[in-house]
Amino acid sequence: MRKMPIEIVTPERKVYENAVDLIVARGADGDLGIMAGHVPVVTTLKVSHLRLKNDGQEITFAVSGGFLEVKPEGVSVLAEAAEMPEEIDVARANRAKERAEKRLSSKGESLDERRAELALQRAVNRISLATRR
Prior knowledge:
Function: Produces ATP from ADP in the presence of a proton gradient across the membrane.
Protein name: ATP synthase epsilon chain
CATH architecture of the largest domain: Sandwich
Number of strands: 8
CATH class of the largest domain: Mainly Beta
CATH superfamily of the largest domain: F0F1 ATP synthase delta/epsilon subunit, N-terminal
Pfam family, one: ATP-synt_DE_N
Family: Belongs to the ATPase epsilon chain family.
Organism: Tumebacillus flagellatus
């Protein structure tokens, strides 16, 4: 099977670079499965898990939005944040989840509801990846 080069970068660092068999990402219009030879495409990424399959192994990242671009020479992921399960501080993610839930339940005048919803999605995404077995 041909491999597809992928590079995952955030504003802070290069998170991952390798060639893989399959990339599964949640884009603006739903899930994408990308293999070598995929047609060029650019999409926004939802807060979700980004899965890479390579030689029977799976590597999963918690991604907090961004962009994915498929070109003939490879895939570039420009993510707001991307973490592997072992990098996630579950206690911190749980605190972020609790803060977001509290903001959403207060429904005050100064509430930025969309921002709180996104914070909740990010926290739940990180917790689900870090705690899955």
